[in-house]
Amino acid sequence: MNLHNLLDFAPVFDNMGKILSGFWATVRLSAAAGLFAMIIGTAVAGMRVSPVPVLRAAGTLYVNVFRNTPLTLILLFCGLGLRDTLGLWTHADASLSGYWLAVLGLSVYTGAFICESLRAGINTVPLGQAEAARSIGLTFPQSLRLVVLPQAFRTVIAPLGSVLIAMIKNTSVALVAGSLEAAAVMKQMFDDVGGTIPIFIGFAAGYMILTLPTGYFFGWLAKRMAVTR
Amino acid sequence: MTDSGKAAQEAGLSGGGPLVVLENVNKYFGELHVLKDIDLAIHRGEVVVVIGPSGGGKSTLCRAINRLEPIDGGTIRIDGRPLPVEGRALAELRADVGMVFQSFNLFAHKTILQNVTLGPTKVRKIGKAEAEQHAMELLERVGIASQAEKYPAQLSGGQQQRAAIARALAMRPKVMLFDEPTSALDPEMIKEVLDVMTNLAAEGMTMVVVTHEMGFARASANKVVFMADGQIVEENTPDDFFTNARSDRAKDFLSKILTH
Fold it and tell me: Residue A156, SS3?
């Protein structure tokens, strides 16, 4: 293959429609998985700081299992295990069931990291805040929801941004759960036109177009929402 | 104390037994025995000032009354009910016990007004408008109504502590606990907080005050409790305590703090 072929951007522009629809799938996957990961992470963080030993143990187990298992394994389990073997989440439209299985795997995995970031944030909230909350008669869930978590979230906005950026890039293995997104389109193009540098550059740029603004947005939000003490 | 305060106090006193009763209370921090066989009764409308050397267990005693520090032995009853263990019942009891901390502990992410209305709206389930009206009355009373929309970090220490008192009062508590409320304040701000507390005492509020402010103890206390080494060494009227303390330990303490 000569230099001219290696640097030929034509395949990227010729397949722009396909590439854009791939990234659109990445965006939809990231949005849903990000939302559910936040919900799961917040709930598990609440469990890990709760006064109930059983909840604490369950939260710790969750984090230890899902933070230490490779994402590819989790997503494969969603596809091969949950759908193909156990027959869950099967759907007439295979791409739809693949999408939701990938959302499930990604959010369960990312939730463990969100939980740990958030727990670090909870540790920065002075103990006196929780004591004051309890002393006006708030129950533990109320003091967590109304006093501790709002302050904890504000201190970990920037690290949460990093977790979400990692998650956006992690969508590139969603294919193993049967969900087609940008990275799947890229593999298809390699098969069709060969692995050329322009295709790599094109897709790397595509991911950066998604992640760079995410990083800037979280950085801006962190500054804006900072709690002054 | 004003006449109306005395009247309120007597009316309160006639309404049943003591409001807060500690019986044979013991508490350990690991090996350290921080509360030793504490017996104490606080009557309705009474202002009890707890003084003594640092590390003597004063703050722990104060915090034990609303179970911010769980005790290891003995019983604490508030209005006849033993302190519940963790859970909803404890939260309900804490709603009736106001607490003011040394470091104010205002909710840093909420405005002063939101700090004062949080408890009434979320615990007492009072409507927002009514809670805000009551909160503004209280902020007016402690002299910081003009700061209602600011955040705690924008206020001086004295203003923050007065806001914290308003936050506790918003729950309409049966008793107020003050854990060294002026110890973190600049000297010129101590007076504005003590003035609020003195007014509260005069209005007949039942108060437990851990403090080093001897002037406040003399002027507003009905009873002085002197604590050292985890024990109540002496319980006395303020007049007798400051002029004629019974115990040597108290005499020694007073000689150190009153003669400079």
Answer: coil
Distance from CA of A142 to the nearest CA of B (A): 8
ipTM over 0.90: no
Residue numbers in A near B109 (CB within 8 A): 147, 150-151, 154, 227
Q: Which residues between 138 and 197 in chain B have a beta carbon less than 8 angstroms from any beta carbon of chain A? A: 151, 153-154, 164, 167-168, 171
Domain boundary assignment for chain A: 3-225
Residues of B in contact with A131 (CB under 8 A): 68, 99, 101, 105
Count of CB atoms situated within 10 Å of the CB of A126: 13
Alpha carbons B115 and B107: distance in angstroms, whole number: 6
What is the crossing angle of helices A157-170 and A94-124, to 10°? Answer: 160
**CATH T-level fold of A3-225:** MetI-like fold (1.10.3720)
Tell me whether residues B91 and A133 touch, CB distance under 8 A: no
Say if the Cβ atoms of A228 and B108 lie within 8 Å.
yes
Contacts of B66 (CB under 8 A, 6+ apart): A135, B93, B94, B97, B99, B177
Q: Are B44 and B9 in contact (CB under 8 A)?
A: yes
- Output the CA–CA distances (angstroms, integers) from residue A95 to A21, A28, A91, A167, B154, in the order listed: 14, 13, 9, 20, 54
**Which residues 190-229 of chain A have a CB within 8 Å of chain B?**
227-229
Residue B101 touches chain A, beta carbons under 8 Å? yes
* CB-based contact B66 A135, cutoff 8 Å: yes
Three-state DSSP state, B228: strand
For residue B8, is pLDDT > 50?
A: no
pLDDT at A13: 85
Nearest to A134 among B68, B98, B107 (CB): B68
Mean pLDDT over residues B48-54, rounded?
Answer: 93
Pairing of strands B223-228, B231-236: antiparallel
Q: Which residue has the tokens 């005693």?
A: B61
Q: From first to last of its 229 residues, what are the pLDDT tens digits of chain A?
A: 566 766 778 888 888 888 899 999 999 999 999 999 999 999 999 999 998 999 999 999 999 999 999 999 999 998 888 877 777 777 767 777 888 999 999 999 999 999 999 999 999 999 999 999 999 999 999 999 999 999 999 999 999 999 999 999 999 998 888 888 898 888 888 888 877 788 888 899 999 999 999 999 999 999 998 887 7
